[in-house]
């Protein structure tokens, strides 16, 4: 039986450390990749229209397109009126909006309101939180957002 010398043992440790370093390096992204990913996320649109989704409101209307967008916490109104009944609270962001409607002039300086379903029902539980959010609470530019349809009457 051969007993390894200190030189051989030292080379094995060095080789083992080198192999471990190479294995770790292979798991790390290439230089600049993480920075590129952050830039890509920062450049991603805040709002975009999605096709092929399905939302059915309490009136039985089915929507197959929505606006997926960053938004502020907002009251959801039964109608697009500044002093209308608040039926729900929109708490999550981003959220989806299925259409827009013209209504009362709101704090954002226009009359565009987006129709959605709130996260927390506050009033009129049979409506299941469906109602309108004033456009200034949604990160849209311009209003109404291009590609999102106007709401169906009735």
Quick structural overview:
With 154 residues, the protein is α+β, with helices and mostly antiparallel strands. It is 21% helix and 31% strand.
In words, what does this structure look like?
With 154 residues, this protein is of the alpha+beta class. The protein folds into 2 domains: 6-41; 46-137, no CATH class. Helix content is 21%, strand content 31%. The protein is built from 2 helices and 9 strands; from the N terminus they run ααβββββββββ. A 3-stranded antiparallel β-sheet has the order 1-2-5, with no helix packed on it. Strands 3-4-8 form a 3-stranded antiparallel β-sheet, with no helix packed on it.
Low-confidence stretches: 4-41
What count of domains describes the coordinates? 2
Rg over CA atoms, rounded to whole Å, is 27 Å
What would the principal axes of the Cα set say about the shape? Answer: globular
Oligomer: single chain
Total number of beta strands: 9
Structural class: alpha+beta
Q: What is the residue-averaged pLDDT?
A: 81
Beta-strand share of residues: 25-35%
Instruction: Tell me the major beta sheet.
Output: 3 strands, antiparallel
Across the major sheet, the strand order is: 1-2-5
Total of DSSP H or I helical runs spanning 4+ residues: 2
Q: What gap, in angstroms, lies between the N and C termini?
A: 92 Å
Order of helices and strands: HHEEEEEEEEE
User: What share of residues is helical?
Assistant: 10-25%
């Amino acid at each position: 039986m051969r007993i390894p010398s200190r030189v051989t043992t030292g080379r094995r440790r060095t080789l083992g450390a080198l192999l471990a370093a190479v294995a770790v390096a292979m798991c790390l992204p290439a230089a600049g990749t993480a920075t590129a990913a952050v830039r890509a996320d920062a450049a991603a649109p805040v709002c975009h229209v999605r096709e092929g989704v399905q939302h059915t409101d309490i009136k039985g209307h089915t929507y197959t397109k929505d606006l997926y967008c960053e938004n502020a916490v907002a009251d959801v109104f039964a109608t697009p009126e500044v002093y209308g009944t608040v039926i729900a609270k929109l708490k999550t962001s981003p959220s989806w909006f299925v259409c827009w409607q013209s209504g009362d002039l709101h704090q954002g300086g226009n009359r565009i309101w987006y129709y959605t379903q709130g996260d927390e029902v506050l009033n009129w539980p049979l409506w299941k939180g469906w109602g309108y959010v004033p456009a200034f609470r949604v990160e849209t530019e311009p209003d109404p957002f291009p590609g999102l349809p106007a709401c169906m009457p009735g």
